[in-house]
Amino acid sequence: MHRRQYRRAITLRDLREAARRRLPRMVFDFVDGGAEDEFTAGENQRAFSDITFRPRVLVDVGSRPQAVTVLGRRLEMPVILGPTGLARMVGRAGEVAAAVAAERSGTVSVVSSGSSVSFEDVARSVTAPQWFQLYPWGDRGTIQTLISRARDCGFGAMVVTVDVPVVGAREKDLRNGLTVPPQVNPRTGWDVLSHPGWLAELVTGPKVTFANFTGLMPEQRSTSGLAAATAGLLNPGHTWADLEWMIAAWGGPVLLKGVMTGEDARRAVEVGCQGIAVSNHGGRQADSLPAALDVLPEIVAEVGDEVDVVLDGGVRRGGDVVKALALGARACLVGRPWLYGLAAGGQAGVDRVLEILREEIDRTLALIGQPGVAGLDESAVRVRPGRGRVHPPVD
Predict the structure, then answer these.
(1) What's the Cα-to-Cα distance from 350 to each of 6, 81, 93, 109, rounded to whole Å?
(2) Structure-derived torsion over alpha carbons of residues 145, 93, 336, 324, reported in degrees to the nearest 10
(3) How many Cα atoms occupy the beta-carbon half-sphere of 342 within 13 Å?
(4) Residues 96-119, mean pLDDT to the nearest whole number
(5) How far is CA 259 from CA 230, 273, 276, 384, in A?
(6) Which of 35, 156, 174, 360 has the fewest CB atoms within 10 Å, measured from its CB?
(7) For residues 214 and 334, what is the distance between their CA atoms, to the nearest angstrom?
């Protein structure tokens, strides 16, 4: 699929295929791959196939509003563009494309602290406040600097990702010899040179780097070097007390991302989080974790009446979003899909991702007899026998 033909994409899978063709293998694998055996990455998607709908008929579905409220922010659709690092490796616009697309669709994007476009440049690209993502870096001075910059940029909420105490093993990146930015060398030469459109955009665009860390961490080229530098900033000794400090330093709404148990969700509420993102990092860090969808009901049962719960992981259809909302999520984060769109069509490709999801959500609601997302609950779905749900162990 030629990049200018991205509008022929009917589904997100079409955009994924367009991205696969446009990007060198090492870059596509960076976007699409997971940790180790990629079990968890696969489970995130497989879980949706084990949830089916219970359609109702003769329901007035002439109007099917999708608006939801998350962290006090009204979103015109229940989809948030999630934080992803180094997006300029995929397309020149990088994280700006997500912010602009989100604003056009009446929703919000989350800018990663590992983004390839600075907080300031993303904020200048839109009029609506975006959200920003923060890892619990080991040095409080670095954390305070990022929080202060995000506040100065007018970001509306902080998303703290807590499931990366150390860097996971994305073995495809190591086998492919991926560097940041990608380099032409004997190992990667043919892979890079056989994708001239992508290469031309890379060499004529801004340098791919961790824009928010200019001057805060040493320059690194290889993924192993990047892992070493990041490991030096990450602190596996962080505790809930450190999170409380971050919440106080920010002083605004906080969504805790990476929660997979009811116990941790409860503790998050106790320390002052206003939202929970049920997430296994898209299967990119720890492997052999359950699908995020499978543990969603546990989190919702524990804290769903007190804070906003969103699902992160495996969404590839608007129908997936409807299933997640029926099981108690307020909205869904999507990461890989908007990168597929960025690769396939640049800014317009990311717009197309949200357009596809909006259309699929709307059509699904009509066909299952649901007059909008507000009334969705467990009565709208059924779990296939044998899948069950993941419950905490019984003492």
Answers:
(1) 10, 10, 10, 11
(2) 80
(3) 27
(4) 97
(5) 21, 12, 7, 25
(6) 174
(7) 27
pLDDT of residue 1: 43
What's the residue count for the chain?
Answer: 395
Q: Are 326 and 300 in contact (CB under 8 A)?
A: no
**What's the pLDDT tens digit per position in 115-134?**
999 999 999 999 999 999 99
Amino acid letter for position 178 = L
What's the confidence (pLDDT) of residue 229? 52
Give the integer Cα–Cα distance in Å for 83 and 270.
Answer: 25
Which candidate, 300, 318, 320, 319, places its Cα nearest to that of 309?
300
Q: Tell me if residue 174 falls in helix, strand or coil.
A: helix
The one catalytic residue in 2, 195, 238, 281 is: 281
Our measurement of the distance from residue 324's CA atom to the centroid of its chain's CA atoms, rounded to an integer in Å, reads: 15
**Beta partners for 370?**
none
Helix (H, G, I), strand (E, B) or coil at 2: coil
Report how far Cα 117 is from the mean position of its chain's Cα atoms.
Answer: 16
Q: CA 22 to CA 194: how far, in whole Å?
A: 10
- Catalytic (active site) residue 281: yes
Which 3 state secondary structure label does DSSP give 362? Answer: helix
Do the beta carbons of residue 167 and residue 234 sit within 8 Å? Answer: yes
Angle between helical axes of 140-152 and 240-250 (0-180°, round to 10)? 30
Task: Give which of 274, 335, 278 is closest to 308, Cα–Cα.
Answer: 274
pLDDT tens-digit map of 294-349: 999 999 999 999 999 999 999 999 999 999 999 999 999 999 999 999 999 999 99
Distance CA 280, CA 314 (A): 10
Nearest to 382, CA basis, from 367, 366, 368, 392: 368
Are 51 and 44 spatial neighbours (Cβ–Cβ below 8 Å)? Answer: no
Q: Is 222 exposed, middle or buried (0-12, 13-18, 19+ CB in 10 A)?
A: middle
Beta bridge partners of 131: 110
How far is residue 363's CA from residue 360's CA, in Å, rounded to a whole number?
5
If DSSP codes are grouped into helix, strand and coil, which group holds residue 79?
strand
Q: Return the H-helix or E-strand segment holding 110.
A: strand 110-111
pLDDT tens for 140-196 read 898 999 999 999 999 999 999 999 888 888 888 888 888 787 877 888 888 899 999
